[in-house]
Amino acid sequence: MSAATQPALARVPKLFFSVVMIAMIIGWSLPWVGLTITAFRPVNAATGSGWWTVFGSPSFTLDNFATALNSQGLWRAVLNSLLITVPTVLLVLVVSAAAAFALIWTDLPGRKAIFAILVGLLVVPPEITLVPTLQILKVLGLVNTYPGVWFSHVSSIMPFAVFLLGNFFGQVPRELVEAARVDGAGTFRVLLQVILPLSWSAIASLAIFDFLWVWNDLLRALIIIPDPSLLPLTATLANLGGGYGENITVMAAGAVLLMVPPLMVFLFAQRAFIRGVLTGAVKS
Amino acid sequence: MAASPSVPRRKSRRQSAGAGALLLAPALILVLLFLVVPVGYTIRLSMAKGPGFNLNGFVGLANYQRLAIDPNFFSTVDGPSGALVNSVLWMLLALPACILIGLVVALAADKQKFESIIRGAFFLPMVLSGTVLGIIWLFVYSPSPQLGLLNAALRTDKSWLGDAATVNPALMAAWVWGATGLSVVIIAAALKGVSEDLIEASRLDGANRRQIFWYVTLPSIRLPLSFLLTTQLVQVLKVFDVVYVMTGGGPAGASKTMALMFYEQTFSSLKPQYGAAVVTVMSIVIVIAYLIARQTGRDNQS
Amino acid sequence: MKKLGFAIIAVLPMLAMTACSGGTAPTSAASGSAAASAGGAAVTIVGPWRSTEADTFEKVLDGFRKKTGITVTYSGVPDVVAALTPRISAGSPPDIAILPTGNGFLDYSAQGVLKPLTFMQSEMTSDFDQALINQFSKDGKAYAIPTRADMGNVLLYNPSVVKTPPATWADLVALCGTAKATYNKSCTAGMGKDVWPLYLIFQASYISTNGADKYNDLLSGKIPFDDASVSEAVKRVTMFYSNDWVAGGTSGAMGSGLVDGLSRVFGTSADALVANAGSWGVGLVEGAVDKTAVEGKTIDFVQFPYDEAGKGAVVVNTDAAVLLTDNASVQSLAKYLASAEGQGLFVQSGYTVSNKTVDVSSLTGAKAKTANFLKTGKLGASLISNDLKNQLQTLLGKAINDPTKIDALLKAFAPVAAAGIGG
Fold this sequence. Notes:
heterotrimer; A: mainly alpha; 13 helices; C: alpha/beta; 5-stranded mixed β-sheet
């Protein structure tokens, strides 16, 4: 109804405001910008002067990345991160979509209670499950295997995934499902041809969320992956520190490597991710 | 409009239920194996004798009794200190900080020219792992003014992470930097949903900016705010990565949170039973805090 | 819908592949029972040595590799106990672990996960001091091989700066009183960030004040932790880390790691006079802090400042190799690591070792001094459980922060320590 929408803070002079905004943007970004610049500086420059001097006397090298990947063996850690994260995400999508559908659109008895319990498990902090997980993997013969790590991650994210997808699936109009059933579609057909095609945004959001969750994980990796050659990048980097004087630029390079995939997600899939986050916010 | 189904209802219902069970099974099995059973295992482990990670022996609540008097967990000598106190400190300081800063930024950026850039700049740190956050801020806090951003700006060589008085706020700042993005995103989106009509009507009634904010804007975003509160509350009580990477709980335990105490007891002090007790208590604290926050959110709605 | 279907189909073979191959990485560090190499099953070792120290150990291992053709893989980690525990609990431990200064030995031996060295005990008896063997024995069986050995309670200094190093504690107090005036530097350098140096300096302080026998009594529970001797030792640690004495102030010192702390005494921007470390600190400074350091001229050490009761007390810390599996290859490597031949390769790189039959004539300067002390000093000081050590370190940190609270802290700590003695 109103002609012009009023910004929340309308009275502050425009120029001053713009300057403050720009300062906020720059200031808030300084920490990660600094790290990124440090990663590309030669060791002598980086240990002798702050990264902000690079604007006056630029120096650039890729050596730190080479060292990190080769002599520190971080390439192995990056590979592990990928081999742990990607299959986990795919497994989560498949397993949680199936479960959410079963709990919303099938005639499974007790499904409302099961849904409530499953989502209720959201409240359980993962820390309490980690130490026994190692023992259980041992019993199953899955210790030091990628599948063991996948299963552990998938389980911990299942409550959230079912919650997210369950809410989304529940919004599919009943008529569509009924129409498909009338046409003779069995349960699986309904899932594949009715529900899923309508839920791509939720699935995309879940995939992104899950990717970040697993790629960025540290504590679980530290506890359930005894074999150091299977450790993902987070744990390998965290263990680099301490001890006898580190090459700080190599650590910076390792951190930049760890940052890249999430940043790519941020750049290309920000909207989908935010949408997923907001879905959770609005629905609860 | 639909004709009655050609397949008899009961049979299709059974097929649907059967298919449902099949579809649910993998999730259920995984959750049982790796979520439910481990919780029981940890609780039982906290009552075991050890040594080792098996469930041998039974000592009842002995580990919890020890926790109750352990100065590393809670002590009042020289002011309150201990892992429990540190976790509570995070809840009392870092949580409001990340929500308030998010609120201010979202309000300031609302409907402004640079809004999406601002949102992006604040949101970016959110996708970074706690490990990266820790490394980034290790550099920022570096004592040498040549290397550390903060000390270069303040022209000092203070060791922020080595002083027990400043280490916790310093760590919290690092975490808040990463967590505020969520607040900004959620509140910014929520602000879009505040009814323009309501604001216009209030203005016509003579309300000034502050009154509009308190009585119209804020109540309108109550729901997302309380979601934010509960989500971040759980996150802040679980903090591990940032602290582990930056100080490992130091100096001499000053920044040790409950999660770190659990890790240290299990893997350094080699007392997994005691560590299990710590993590159990930590989980109970988290659950209680979550339920209280959610209930408060619900009460406020009515 | 089709896309999801394709995605699933594409993923399944990948899942199947990794699942079938056991999921282990293409070149995984096998856990002991892996592919056989020329002379026998491959062996894996985990230890605390990294960068230059790791290079030295690889040379030691090369001697074994050439002799037997057995594949040996070593990985150095910052925290051996934290790295070992998940692997042991998962049932996939490395074959051999090197426990720095015996950390975790009491705990692992209580858990029963260590293999006894009965198959080589007689050889060890002739090559090692009995006190060292006893330190790592249970029920008469030896469970660890002492490898590298160093003096624990020493004070490192730069002779070109401090012409006369402090001998007694009173000397140190006097030195630190005039540090600013005479040398324009701080007196001491601290390394609180890495935490374990706090225990090291407490050990040094207690032994130099009270002697090694009393230290053993303390760790075996005969002396309680709120005894006056402990209070005095802790007080000296807090003085060492006090704002007046320590470079960077207390918080700066607590925020500095091992190498940073040593750089304060040696190296180009030195602003402190003395530091506490083991005698291995000499090698570390030469390798990582000041490559131009010359032993005897710009780097040397003396016993940590003592009282009369602790004069001449030398405590030896060894890095102990323990066996977590004991197949033929592992036993063979164990014997090699204990032998004069194997340990001699450490000496060649300038490290001091526990095997007393090794020829140390090639060592010079501070290292020769260490070797000498090893022959004459009191060996086999008591070990401390990791739990107790962690708690003691926390207590030391709190005491450094507020020295007025020392007695209150010790009083609260004494019963906890009594319960924790013995691992």
